[in-house]
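Worked example (supplementary).
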Amino acid sequence: MKVISADHAVAHGARLARVEVVPAFPITPQTLIVELIAEFINDGELDADFLPVESEHSAMSAAIGACAGGARAFTATSSQGLALMHEMLYAAPQNRLPVVMVNVNRSLGAASGIWVEYNDSMPERESGWLQVYIEDNQEALDMVIQAYRVAEDREVMLPMMVCLDGFVLSHTVERVDFPDQHLVDSFLPKFKPLYLLDPDEPVTMNPITPPEYAMEMRFQLHRAVDGSKEVIEKVDREYGALTGRTYGGLVDTYQMEDAEIALITLGTVTSTARVVVDHLRSEGKKVGLIKLRFMRPFPSDELESIAENLKALGVFDRSVSFNGFGPVFTETRNALYHLGTPLTNHIAGLGGRDVTFKEVREMFTVIEEHAKGHRVKECHWHGLRGDS
Amino acid sequence: MYEIRFHGRGGQGAVMAAQALAEAAVLEGYYAQAFPYFGAERRGAPVRAFARIDESKISIKSQVYEPDVLVILDESILEIDPISEGLKPGGKAIINTVKRPEEVDLGIEVECGTVDATTIALETIKAPIVNTSILGAFARVVDIVPLESILNAIMNRFGEKLGHQSGVMNAEAARIAYQKTVVGRSKGTRKVVGKKMWLPTWNEIPIGNTLSPGEIDGIVVGPGSMTQNLTGTWRTQTPRYSKEKCIRCLRCWFSCPEGCIERLEDDYERWDYRYCKGCGICAEVCPADAIEMVRGVYEW
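After joint prediction of all chains, the assembly is encoded as:
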């Protein structure tokens, strides 16, 4: 047990997962991760190569190359760094190279800032990377370990992005329990790539793919991302059996058994929303919380069964598609189209704006009104000065 | 609507030919379009180009599968691709060859124009770029666009891109080809079989976007694939080496971009004609005139 930041929890997760190659470029608020990993390597606590590359584009390229060479590769970035990786991100999924990367969410400028917003990672859900969003420091450590187990599963073989809120999580210290190394070792066998880059048995990786093949390969990837759902659930259960900690797999719920209205959250706002739900429950209101963990694969069927009996549902978003909605709302509305559940979108916390108890309470007020059949706006910006 | 499919090799100008034909049609008051389809660009690789000509605006944007006219810039592609696949029974073909129409086996008996466009191009524009010559032959066989408009289109496109003099020379090549084209009927004895391509379903493709050594029909990828892809058939000229004149300076050996000149123990050379594309660099750099470029595909 230690009282550490989520960034340091991530570094310990990587150490326990025995990562072998770490190409990285420091960027606030991810820096603490790679600094601590470099220390581990320097102090002989982790047997890995740290590559201080000249850019994030190179970091991702090197991670992909290391993975193709049979090494367990780890990297971490944020915001502008992730944007610079964009081109290389796409090489990992189709080549089925299970790199694990932590993205410490930070708003992508302009407006330039170092604070949390999901507009860096949300656009990358088109890339074929699996994406999980983290609520607290313990989950950060546990998910780095789980991420490798999911990503390297023969049925999956896809890269995974572990996303955690900049500063709100990355620089917040909390109690974090460490699983024993031997438990992690039994949970996480040595990485075996599908193909190995080996001069003695040469293969061609990532060849030019004419139209006769590309579409089938896209569909293959499409099915692979979908097929990872089962593995994610299974791995979470197994991890729970080993450590006593599970996270609900794709989507977790809180106070949903008899809930009439609910809010979908992801990231650290989930924690604040738990307190709001407790508060409303004490007032006798039948409210619940849906913690969305994965954006890819998106748990459409799971959400449909959870939301089946709801009178209204709100969706929190920490990024927005301008002139449209938040991405979580858009995906949720797609998933629940057949249910016809009354939905509202609640955008808050952009550019790192603090999301307070009061604002989450306001979200529930709107959802309550909606459930009563009152006409409400579809999209609400909470904490905004001026009408939204 | 009139649909034309061009078959050539990278560097022969099939794409420019399709574009110039489309422009000629537009000059005649038609609507027209032209577009290419090729893989990773490289000279000598099979290239297709398409053109459509119609009296009203053309909407369709897909490739041409049942052409009215085939234009074949390189005879050797007949041996590797089912070129005449989809050619309409009443269709026409224009082919760059020294043969007469009745000696050409397209696998379908159609009206066919033959012309030795390579010789015309070499003599007129001093390069084996046959696109403009073949357009002259096109005007002779197909009466939709008269020679005059083809010549104007060539002047416009080639003159703009490569200078007035080049336009004049290319138009001249087309004019000569128009006169020299022999019109007759092709043979239809060859069996046109669709290319045997590996077309797996999505779950038959090995996952991982990685190919083991070996050949996959149609793309020939993977290390060692050059053993299947004998690029020597692409050449129009073959270097002929004279050991007697050779002074063993090795300049040809240094300069061959394909590495198909072998340096023997005594510093004399040997050519690997399976991969020689006949670029002529070896002959150009030879200070002793020991290498002569000869028209045609030979192995000495």
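Two points are worth noting when inspecting this output. Chain A touches chain B at residues 94-96, 157, 194-195, 202-210, 212-213, 216-217, 219-220, 223-224 (CB under 8 Å). Chain A has a mean pLDDT of 97.
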